[in-house]
């Protein structure tokens, strides 16, 4: 609306100027010198007035654009004085300034929030220009982890710790990587990853580093505490009766030696006691071997294995014992071409464990059934499943079945599923379970 008013007033001025010029020409034609002089002065005034009318707007706009150029949005234009069209411009400029200041205020608040959050986390973060080495931003955790003061350029670290500089800034860690760095007289383990990003024509590198030494120490300490607790419990369960029985036998033998006539030694009791000590000692030895089976699986002998051959081997090994218990067994492959890079010996051990558990679960069912299948999923994962229609796993113990030494069987060691999980983790896979009490279970190996 203001634009149309401005054009209308400019058009009137041009029309008036044209009319006065025509009048000026006409008076010259009539040779009226006095009138021509007066009209000539009027023409000059009209030119000056139109020039000022147009220039006023451009001066206001130029003033505003100059403020925008230097990002001076604090400027306030008077809206209550001056020509109407100029006041309208001032109102628009002030509205733009208000909007930009609100956006800047919101951006500054978000930046402060982000900065405070990044300062509070115990993960070191730094971003710097790849070409110049100038630090764009870093938090206190980064400097504390590397034990360096605040710096504006990464060359500062190079001048003081060349090896650390090479490890942190010059080596690329596209995926999170655990490394050991030397700081003064101490070596610490850190988790590091980085990425490169582009802003306009400049390339920046973002590095994230976390000191995991304390976490590892704490986890190791907790693991040792749990291990010692389990081992102490199991060892005490074996040693206490052995000690008590040995003391009783020793006392009886001593009485016989002191007074053989009154205290005749019962050889059958002695034999029974020694046999009990032997059995408990074997139990303790079995426990030690069981623990060793958990700890010795630390590396893999990977090879390309056809699942058809793996299934055939397991079927030959397990089918006779399954059939002897009148359990129906089925092996099913979605494709004979399925292959995996695995340690065949260990995966066989996993599957044998799962099949034995399935046999135990469905042995009391009316029509016991076990199915072993393998298929390739749409996400390219290969899964092996062991189904059974057995008694299922009670919900209250479902979360504990992979815990070492946990068992719901009277004769179980509680080590089978724990070992299965460790083997799958070494293969960078996972083992899943889905079970419904009274209906059966399915264990899934995901590769």
UniProtKB/TrEMBL annotation:
The UniProt record lists the keyword DNA repair: no
UniProt source species: Bizionia arctica
GO molecular function, one term: phosphorelay sensor kinase activity
SUPFAM superfamilies attached to this UniProt entry: ATPase domain of HSP90 chaperone/DNA topoisomerase II/histidine kinase (SSF55874)
A Pfam family it matches: HATPase_c
Protein name: histidine kinase
Reactions catalysed according to its record: ATP + protein L-histidine = ADP + protein N-phospho-L-histidine
Enzyme class: transferase
Keywords, ordered alphabetically: Kinase, Membrane, Phosphoprotein, Transferase, Transmembrane, Transmembrane helix
Domain Histidine kinase: residue ranges: 230-447
E.C. number: 2.7.13.3
Membrane-crossing residue ranges in chain numbering: 7-29, 35-54
